[in-house]
Write a structure and sequence with these properties.
Elements lengths: L8 H32 L3 H28 L10 H10 L8 H32 L3 H29 L3
Helix pairs in contact: 1-2, 1-3, 1-4, 2-5, 3-4, 4-5
Length: 166
Protein backbone atom coordinates (compact mmCIF):
# COMPACT_ATOMS: atom_id res chain seq x y z
CA UNK A 1 0.00 0.00 0.00
CA UNK A 2 1.49 3.38 -1.01
CA UNK A 3 2.31 5.77 1.77
CA UNK A 4 1.23 9.39 1.87
CA UNK A 5 4.04 11.53 0.44
CA UNK A 6 5.80 14.02 2.62
CA UNK A 7 4.12 17.36 2.16
CA UNK A 8 6.78 20.03 1.84
CA UNK A 9 7.00 23.31 -0.01
CA UNK A 10 8.67 21.80 -3.07
CA UNK A 11 6.04 19.06 -3.29
CA UNK A 12 3.19 21.60 -2.96
CA UNK A 13 4.72 23.83 -5.65
CA UNK A 14 4.92 20.85 -8.02
CA UNK A 15 1.28 19.96 -7.42
CA UNK A 16 0.28 23.59 -7.80
CA UNK A 17 2.06 24.02 -11.12
CA UNK A 18 0.80 20.69 -12.47
CA UNK A 19 -2.84 21.58 -11.76
CA UNK A 20 -2.37 25.16 -12.97
CA UNK A 21 -0.91 23.85 -16.25
CA UNK A 22 -3.85 21.50 -16.75
CA UNK A 23 -6.51 24.16 -16.25
CA UNK A 24 -4.54 26.78 -18.18
CA UNK A 25 -4.08 24.55 -21.23
CA UNK A 26 -7.71 23.49 -21.11
CA UNK A 27 -8.87 27.11 -20.98
CA UNK A 28 -6.58 28.05 -23.90
CA UNK A 29 -7.95 25.16 -25.95
CA UNK A 30 -11.49 26.26 -25.09
CA UNK A 31 -10.70 29.87 -26.08
CA UNK A 32 -9.35 28.68 -29.43
CA UNK A 33 -12.54 26.69 -30.13
CA UNK A 34 -15.14 29.05 -28.68
CA UNK A 35 -16.35 30.45 -32.00
CA UNK A 36 -17.21 26.94 -33.15
CA UNK A 37 -19.11 26.26 -29.93
CA UNK A 38 -21.10 29.47 -30.33
CA UNK A 39 -21.92 28.53 -33.92
CA UNK A 40 -23.45 25.25 -32.68
CA UNK A 41 -26.00 27.07 -30.51
CA UNK A 42 -29.40 27.73 -32.08
CA UNK A 43 -31.00 29.72 -29.25
CA UNK A 44 -30.01 33.42 -29.12
CA UNK A 45 -29.83 33.49 -25.32
CA UNK A 46 -27.41 30.55 -25.41
CA UNK A 47 -25.26 32.28 -28.03
CA UNK A 48 -25.10 35.37 -25.82
CA UNK A 49 -24.33 33.27 -22.74
CA UNK A 50 -21.54 31.53 -24.65
CA UNK A 51 -20.13 34.94 -25.59
CA UNK A 52 -20.18 35.97 -21.93
CA UNK A 53 -18.62 32.62 -21.02
CA UNK A 54 -15.89 33.33 -23.59
CA UNK A 55 -15.14 36.70 -21.99
CA UNK A 56 -14.74 34.89 -18.69
CA UNK A 57 -12.37 32.38 -20.27
CA UNK A 58 -10.20 35.27 -21.53
CA UNK A 59 -10.24 36.89 -18.07
CA UNK A 60 -9.29 33.63 -16.37
CA UNK A 61 -6.41 33.02 -18.78
CA UNK A 62 -5.16 36.56 -18.16
CA UNK A 63 -5.25 35.99 -14.38
CA UNK A 64 -3.39 32.70 -14.81
CA UNK A 65 -0.77 34.51 -16.92
CA UNK A 66 -0.34 36.83 -13.92
CA UNK A 67 0.01 33.80 -11.64
CA UNK A 68 2.73 32.33 -13.84
CA UNK A 69 4.59 35.66 -13.68
CA UNK A 70 4.22 35.76 -9.89
CA UNK A 71 5.68 32.26 -9.45
CA UNK A 72 8.37 32.83 -12.08
CA UNK A 73 7.23 29.98 -14.31
CA UNK A 74 5.87 29.51 -17.82
CA UNK A 75 2.90 27.35 -18.77
CA UNK A 76 3.80 23.82 -19.82
CA UNK A 77 1.66 21.73 -22.13
CA UNK A 78 0.22 18.71 -20.35
CA UNK A 79 -0.83 15.31 -21.55
CA UNK A 80 -4.24 13.95 -20.67
CA UNK A 81 -6.02 17.24 -20.15
CA UNK A 82 -9.62 16.58 -19.04
CA UNK A 83 -10.94 19.91 -20.34
CA UNK A 84 -9.48 19.28 -23.81
CA UNK A 85 -10.93 15.76 -23.77
CA UNK A 86 -14.42 16.96 -22.91
CA UNK A 87 -14.33 19.63 -25.61
CA UNK A 88 -12.98 17.27 -28.28
CA UNK A 89 -15.24 14.36 -27.40
CA UNK A 90 -18.47 16.13 -26.59
CA UNK A 91 -18.69 19.52 -28.31
CA UNK A 92 -17.54 18.78 -31.81
CA UNK A 93 -20.66 16.95 -32.77
CA UNK A 94 -20.59 15.95 -36.42
CA UNK A 95 -24.00 14.35 -36.30
CA UNK A 96 -26.82 16.70 -37.30
CA UNK A 97 -29.62 16.61 -34.75
CA UNK A 98 -33.22 16.64 -35.97
CA UNK A 99 -34.02 19.07 -33.15
CA UNK A 100 -31.50 21.92 -32.66
CA UNK A 101 -32.49 22.02 -29.00
CA UNK A 102 -30.56 18.76 -28.51
CA UNK A 103 -27.28 20.44 -29.53
CA UNK A 104 -28.15 23.40 -27.31
CA UNK A 105 -28.81 21.19 -24.30
CA UNK A 106 -25.55 19.30 -24.96
CA UNK A 107 -23.68 22.62 -25.00
CA UNK A 108 -25.28 23.62 -21.70
CA UNK A 109 -24.56 20.24 -20.14
CA UNK A 110 -20.91 20.16 -21.15
CA UNK A 111 -20.21 23.81 -20.35
CA UNK A 112 -21.52 23.13 -16.86
CA UNK A 113 -19.43 19.97 -16.65
CA UNK A 114 -16.36 22.01 -17.62
CA UNK A 115 -17.20 24.63 -15.03
CA UNK A 116 -17.54 21.97 -12.34
CA UNK A 117 -14.06 20.68 -13.25
CA UNK A 118 -12.80 24.27 -13.09
CA UNK A 119 -14.51 25.01 -9.77
CA UNK A 120 -12.98 21.89 -8.20
CA UNK A 121 -9.53 22.64 -9.63
CA UNK A 122 -9.61 26.27 -8.52
CA UNK A 123 -10.72 25.17 -5.04
CA UNK A 124 -7.71 22.83 -4.82
CA UNK A 125 -5.34 25.50 -6.15
CA UNK A 126 -6.68 28.01 -3.60
CA UNK A 127 -6.00 25.54 -0.77
CA UNK A 128 -2.44 24.98 -1.99
CA UNK A 129 -1.86 28.72 -2.53
CA UNK A 130 -2.98 29.32 1.05
CA UNK A 131 -0.47 26.73 2.34
CA UNK A 132 2.28 28.34 0.24
CA UNK A 133 1.27 31.81 1.46
CA UNK A 134 0.65 32.95 -2.12
CA UNK A 135 -1.79 35.66 -1.03
CA UNK A 136 -1.97 37.58 -4.31
CA UNK A 137 -2.26 34.33 -6.26
CA UNK A 138 -4.99 33.11 -3.91
CA UNK A 139 -6.98 36.25 -4.74
CA UNK A 140 -6.57 35.72 -8.50
CA UNK A 141 -7.67 32.10 -8.15
CA UNK A 142 -10.66 33.14 -6.04
CA UNK A 143 -11.73 35.52 -8.82
CA UNK A 144 -11.47 32.65 -11.34
CA UNK A 145 -13.40 30.36 -8.99
CA UNK A 146 -16.15 32.96 -8.58
CA UNK A 147 -16.37 33.50 -12.33
CA UNK A 148 -16.71 29.76 -12.97
CA UNK A 149 -19.42 29.49 -10.31
CA UNK A 150 -21.31 32.41 -11.88
CA UNK A 151 -21.06 30.76 -15.31
CA UNK A 152 -22.49 27.57 -13.88
CA UNK A 153 -25.46 29.55 -12.52
CA UNK A 154 -25.90 31.36 -15.85
CA UNK A 155 -26.13 28.10 -17.76
CA UNK A 156 -28.55 26.69 -15.20
CA UNK A 157 -30.83 29.66 -15.92
CA UNK A 158 -30.48 29.14 -19.68
CA UNK A 159 -31.36 25.44 -19.26
CA UNK A 160 -34.49 26.41 -17.34
CA UNK A 161 -35.61 28.48 -20.34
CA UNK A 162 -35.52 25.32 -22.46
CA UNK A 163 -37.34 23.00 -20.12
CA UNK A 164 -39.96 25.18 -18.44
CA UNK A 165 -43.34 25.79 -20.03
CA UNK A 166 -44.23 29.06 -18.28
Amino acid sequence: MPTTPQINESYLKSIFQYQLNRIYNGKCFLKDNLDHLISLASFRALQLAMGEFGSGVHNQISRMDDIYRLIGEKPLDTVGNPIKSIIKDEFFIDEKQTMPVLNDLDIILYVQLLEHVNITTYRMLIMIAKLLKYNEIKQLLTENFDESAENDQLFTLIAKEYITTD
